[in-house]
C-alpha cells in the first residue's frame, strides 16, 4: 500500500511539474514575441511617413498576443501548483483562443507583404515631390536618406524631376551626399531608398508571420498536453480518493454520521434487560 501511494504521489508531482515547465516555456516564448513585436513596431514608427497605417496592425496585434500569453502562462503555473483541473482546462482553452488571434496576425502580415513594393515607391515619390513646397516633408525624406544611406527612389537621378538643375550640375539634398559637400560639390549616394526600405518592411512582415505561425502550432501542442495532463490529474485524484475510502473501510471508520438512537448507552437505557445487571440496579445484598 505504501509503495502504491508513493507511486501515485510521484505521478502527481510529475504531472504538476510538467505543466509548470510548459507554462514557463510559454512565458519565455511570449516575452520573445513581445520583444520582437516592439522592435518591429519601433522600426515602422521610424518610417511611419512612408508606411500606411494598416501596416501597424500586425505588430500591435502581436504585442497584445505577447501580453495575453504572459498572463495565460501565469494562470497555468498557478493551476499546476494548485493541481486544479478546472484551471488547467481553462489554460488549454485560452491557448487555443490565442491561436486564432495569432493566425489572424500571420495572415495579415503575409497579405500586407505583397503590398509593400507599390506602397513604398509611391510614398517616397510623394515626399520628394513635396520636398520644396512643404517644409514639413523635408525631415522625413532627409531622415530616410540619412538613416538608410540612400538617395532618391531607385537612385540619385530621381531628384532631377523635383530639384532644379542648370544642365551641368544637378542639385541634391545634403542627405544625398556620401560625404559632406566640399566646394559646393556633392558626391551622391549610390543606392536608392526604395530597395532598402521595402526590404526592411518586408523582412519585418515575414518575421511577424513566421514567428507567429511557429509559436501558434507549438501552442496547439501545449493545449493538447494541458488537456491530457488535466485528465491525468483528475484520474489521479479519483484513484487517491478511492484508496482513501478503501483504507477507511478497512479500518472500520464509518463514513456516515451516527444517529444518537443507535448509540450503545441509549440502547441499553431504552431496552433494559431485566436479567442483566447494570450499575444502576439495586444491590442484591
From TrEMBL:
Matching SUPFAM superfamilies: Tetraspanin (SSF48652)
Keywords on record: Glycoprotein, Membrane, Transmembrane, Transmembrane helix
Region (Disordered): 265-285
Subcellular localization, as worded in the UniProt entry: Membrane
Bilayer topology: Multi-pass membrane protein
Broad class of the protein's primary localization: membrane
Ranges annotated as biased composition (Basic and acidic residues): 266-276
Annotated signal peptide: none
Keyword Repeat: no
Cellular component aspect of the GO annotation: plasma membrane
Keyword Transmembrane found: yes
InterPro entries xref list: Tetraspanin/Peripherin (IPR018499), Tetraspanin_animals (IPR000301), Tetraspanin_EC2_sf (IPR008952)
Transmembrane segments: 20-41, 61-81, 88-112, 206-230
PANTHER family xref list: TETRASPANIN
Family: Belongs to the tetraspanin (TM4SF) family.
Protein name, UniProt field: Tetraspanin
